[in-house]
Amino acid sequence: FKGGDTCEYLLSSGRFLGEKVWQPHSCMMHKYKNSEAKNCLIDKHVVFIGDSRIRQLFYSFIKLINPQVKEEGIKHGNIPFEDKSASIKVDFLWYPEVNGSMRQRIKSWTEGSVAKPHIIVVGAATWSIKIHNGSNEALAQYKINITSIAPLLEKLAISSDVYWVLQDPVYEDMLSESRKMITNEKIDAYNEAAVRILNSSSRNSKAKVKVFSVSKLIAQETIMKSVDGLHLPESSRDTNAMILMNVYCNKIMKPIDGSCCQPQPPLTLIQKIAFCFFTLSIIGYLIISLIHRNNYRKNKSCTDLESGEEKKPAISTPNVSTLEMLLHCFCKLGLIMTYFYLCDRANLFMKENKFYTHSSFFIPIVYILVLGVFYTENTKETKVLNREQTDEWKGWMQLVILIYHISGASTFLPVYMHIRVLVAAYLFQTGYGHFSYFWIKGDFGVYRVCQVLFRLNFLVVVLCIVMDRPYQFYYFVPLVTVWFMIIYATLAVWPQIVQKKANGNCLWHFGLLLKLICLLTCIYFLSYSQGAFEKIFSFWPLSKCFELNGNVYEWWFRWKLDRYVVFHGMLFAFIYLALQKHQMISEGKGDPLFSNRVSNVLLFVSIVSFLTYSIWASSCKNKTECNELHPSVSVVQILAFILIRNIPGYVRSVYSSFFAWFGKISLELFICQYHIWLAADTKGILVLIPGYPMFNVLVSTFIFVCVAHEISQITNDLAQIVVPKDNSTLLKRLLCIAGFFSGLHFFSAMQDQSRH
Questions:
Q1: pTM for the full model?
Q2: pLDDT the model gives residue 203
Q3: CA-based, 20 to 30 A from 470: which of 116, 139, 488, 636?
Q4: What is the pLDDT at residue 311?
């Protein structure tokens, strides 16, 4: 990283991703909506000064504020525009030559108490070349005129944003006879003169005129599509206008996916405290390690020189203490969190926008599937959805979701709908797994609940502190956490019905079904009563967890999108365990799940159902309508997959160890991708090695996977310490955790007060 200002990169360099998507060098460009543009430019006055090319830029700019504007103004005259709702004024002033008239207009803004425009965009040269037939005398006069205007522009730049637009190249073959003298050689000479004069003048000035040179690069790629060889096609003009909007508005609006021109956010009070905590943990661990090393050296076995026998130490090497393990975990976690912060909060590494192509999504999918099949092993047990199989399922789904995110495939609706099924399948496993545990074990103790909640939420809580993000931002963890608590509450409330009790009396099965029907009724009611749902989660302290941007709508949308699938998972677990108990299915190695005839029929129905859902998802035309149907129909493909994967005995008896390895750290992979694989909170891509996209993905992926694996181990180690089995010790730890969150809330309130 060269350490330059990202604004300079935005104004001067970049490349096209595909045909229309412009990628600035080193940073991400936000696509401003009309409402955002108005909020940024409220009470602002913008002026465009120049020739017909600047007039084009003016129209593209005001269309970002009001798309209904038509290009009907006087061609060779001033054109005003005003948006009264936001008090925005944008004027185009017709000054096709850099001459005394232009100088006089600019000078008028520097004198007295005249209101100065907030943004000034200036540029002209092609008229001078055309009128004077490309003479050298005209170029010399152009230099004199810019030299006289430069100090005035610098004076304005103290209080306003001033941009000098360099001249775009022309497509000489398409120019009319009256414009043949406008050559790229002449344009380059005029641009070189403007840059040299403005740069030399700004060295002695407090403020700097920003040179808008990126339009040259854009024009070089698109001028061939020009209608007359001189004026840019509309898509290129729109890109230039969007760049201008990013340069001015990013520092005001601070969009997540607009890293260009955004200053590094200041450290919050909580982040400073976290930094001190991790620093002290690292120092403490180093001190303890040095003490243990010295003790080990003192007590190390040594050879008696006289007898030649080895003497044993009087004291054996002590086991690792709880404090040392705790400090060791926080030491590693501190280093990892530093990497997180540097990747996605400090302006240290580059970030780029995503750009979707079919090849960028499907080629990696094929590659990982081949790898997964290559690492095939026999399972330890052949039950339906055994541990190896569920880990494998989580693993390949997580890898597909990661590829989906980095390739930007959410813009392709058929892929989006299939990924929604994969997310639903995770929640299905949540319902299946937790129901099975409580039903078989009957363990509703606090220890089990605390262990699950800690493992699910530890990483997210740390990231909320270090990355200054709300809990709901990592939406999947709150979703899984709430559904776990719903499953627990459903089965733990009186009467507690478990398998052991139900085996003694079949009526208990109907009691459990009644509980599940009550749960389904509550889900149905909340899904169609947004007001009731929002009231429940708007109460403190739930509001602190589930609010995003000041409301809980995002949380309601996420919950509603997969509202039935956890219930489906619980119901499937109940039916499967009942069939297993009554020996109605065969789970022997190599045996089909049912009789040959039934297995063949179910397998055929499953394959047809699986393909039918895929055809429906691929034919989706409207995301909103498909999302409405998704909660009810996603279970079709999930159940079809389970049956296809488990009915044939030989398929049920093998699994992919490659996918299963990733499945064991799937939660950490899903959360870590936000900041150290993707960038700008998943909106872009992290660039560690610029200029080599494939090599960059390989390096960043290797680090990302290693970090996720390490965090998984840290979480498991800390879970044993923070959540002990002894009830009295656990109670003390829970009081400490309650104190921690109380302190966190107190400091958060202080932060909010200081921000306001």
A1: 0.91
A2: 63
A3: 488
A4: 42
